[in-house]
Design brief:
This protein is α/β, with parallel strands linked by helices. The chain folds into 4 domains: about 80 residues, DnaA, N-terminal domain (GMP Synthetase, Chain A, domain 3, 2-Layer Sandwich); about 180 residues, P-loop containing nucleotide triphosphate hydrolases (Rossmann fold, 3-Layer(aba) Sandwich); about 70 residues, Helicase, Ruva Protein, domain 3; about 90 residues, Chromosomal Replication Initiator Protein Dnaa, Chain: A. Helices cover about 60% and strands about 10% of the residues. It has 21 helices and 8 strands. Strands 5-6-7-4-8 form a 5-stranded parallel beta sheet, sandwiched between helices. Strands 1-2-3 form a 3-stranded mixed beta sheet. Helix 3 links the parallel strand 2 and strand 3. Helix 20 crosses helix 21. The protein is globular. The two termini are about 35 Å apart. About 40% of the residues are buried. Bound molecules: adenosine-5'-diphosphate and magnesium ion.
């Protein structure tokens, strides 16, 4: 593609996005973007620092994909890279830096990576999550006093990570001098392995044992990792002994977590256990209203009601459905009617109300086709990334689109146990949040199925 054509495409995309992304977000995230290359169906953009790029991918990743796909007339994947010169992240002008984090930076501490959108203010409260919300607020306001640990469990997409970040934000607002760490159990594990390998365990201890609030996400991924669990146990005990707060999330309650040391599970159980259930109709509607408001969009109440009625599984999908509708109306220019919504959300709607029964076999076939993976490899023990990913995507879709239990899904995907399936489902849900390309591929499988 010529430079002139690329420039034209970029201009067109920016013009479109300017209409839908309001004010400062546009100036901050979209305006600086430049095209680095367009090869095959991959568009590589550069612009902004690491933080901007993360925010951009998270909030507008799918929109960028749609905008470029529309401008180029074919389905493309957009990748954004930070510009070479990374702006000083601790500069007071950095809009991502909360006051507390600034204070922490001033003392030379690393800031926790908290998503600016995941706050208590943006968390819609309803009967399904009221208890969790109250407990989380109590903990955030007086870390180390209320319940220790606070253990939050819920199925994917119901708000665990959101709650965890909210606690971090609130604690830092109230106690700017506190050291807050947010980490997934996988990051904790890789950090541990890395420090052992390089003989820097001191650093590791300093980091994790000298914080005021440790937020650890998706603890189930620590399963089977014996040394890491031992290290985590000691981290845990030393924090609790020092009166520091720990908040843990998982996809299951402690007694159902497999391959995690009993003494660790019993500590988890000794704090406060709270779960988040699937949102009720009213909460779903309220979440959609909030989301539309955050996006700066006006959507007719009957459209929101239609989405709330039809997308019931989890909040991530609920938000995804709304985003898809908004993108549709932006790029088609058509008015959003219930009819249009029904068409755009066909796969969500059908999948949920069970118009059509989808079997695991059909899911596996579709995944193999879209990801070009051999059926036997997927069912077997092959651990290459491509095969393992495809297998986990099949599990994810099984969970989302059939009524089978985790154990039944495992049975159908080459005889795996329920914790393997649960692991795969969460892993893909997480990866989809970060990877618009994966999202698109999964959508492609879904379209094949319905
Ligand atoms: P989990 O970690 O449990 O898989 P997340 O915390 O990532 O789920 O939530 C998925 C999406 O749903 C996020 O975009 C989050 O902001 C949103 N969300 C979850 N719960 C709520 C809520 N109660 N109100 C508003 N948004 C929510
Ligand atoms: Mg999460």
């Amino acid at each position: 593609m010529t430079d002139a054509r690329a420039t034209g495409v970029l201009k067109q995309v920016k013009e479109r996005l300017r209409e839908v992304i309001i004010g400062p977000k546009y100036d901050l995230l979209i305006e600086p973007l430049e095209i680095e290359s367009i090869t095959g169906n991959r568009v590589t953009l550069v612009g902004g620092g690491q933080k901007q790029v993360e925010w951009l991918q998270e909030e507008f990743g799918s929109r960028l994909n749609e905008a470029f796909s529309a401008a180029l007339g074919e389905l493309v994947e957009v990748v954004v890279k930070p510009s070479e010169v990374i702006p000083d992240q601790s500069s007071p002008l950095d809009p991502f830096t909360s006051l507390g984090a600034l204070a922490a930076t001033a003392r030379g501490q690393a800031r926790p990576l908290l998503n600016p959108r995941f706050t208590f203010e943006n968390f819609v409260v309803g009967p399904s999550n009221q208890f969790c919300y109250s407990a989380a607020k109590a903990v955030a306001e007086r870390p180390g006093f209320a319940y220790n640990p606070l253990f939050v469990y819920a199925d994917v997409g119901l708000g665990k990570t959101h709650i965890l970040h909210s606690i971090g934000h609130r604690t830092l607002e109230l106690h700017p001098e506190y050291r807050v760490i947010f980490v997934t159990s996988e990051k904790f594990t890789s950090d541990f392995i890395e420090k052992v390998r390089t003989g820097r365990m001191n650093e590791f201890h300093q980091r994790y044992r000298q914080c005021d609030l440790l937020l650890i996400d998706d603890i189930q991924f620590i399963a089977g990792k014996v040394e890491t669990q031992m290290e985590f146990f000691h981290t845990f005990m030393s924090l609790v002994d020092a009166g520091k707060q720990i908040v843990v999330t998982a996809d299951l309650p402690p007694q159902e977590l497999k391959n995690i040391e009993a003494r660790l599970l019993s500590r988890f159980g000794s704090g406060l256990l709270v779960d988040i259930g699937p949102p009720e109709a009213e909460t779903r509607l309220a979440i959609l209203q909030k989301k539309a408001e955050l996006e700066g969009r006006k959507v007719a109440p009957e459209i929101l009601a239609f989405v709330a009625e039809n997308v019931r599984s989890n909040i991530r999908e609920l938000e995804g459905a709304l985003i898809r509708l908004l993108a549709f109306s932006d790029f088609s220019g058509a008015k959003l009617t219930i009819e249009a919504a029904r068409r755009v959300l066909a796969d969500f709607v059908k999948g949920q109300s069970g118009y059509r029964y989808i079997s695991m076999e059909q899911i596996i076939d579709a995944v193999c086709e879209v990801f070009r993976v051999d059926h036997n490899l997927l069912m077997g023990r092959d651990r290459r990334k491509k095969v393992a990913d495809a297998r986990m995507i099949a599990m994810y879709l099984g969970r989302k689109r059939t009524n089978l239990t985790l154990a039944q899904i495992g049975e159908e995907v080459g005889g795996r146990d329920h914790s393997t399936v649960s692991h795969g489902v969460t892993k893909i849900a997480q990866a989809m949040d970060e990877d618009p390309y994966l999202q698109q591929m999964v959508q492609r499988v879904i379209r094949k199925l319905f």
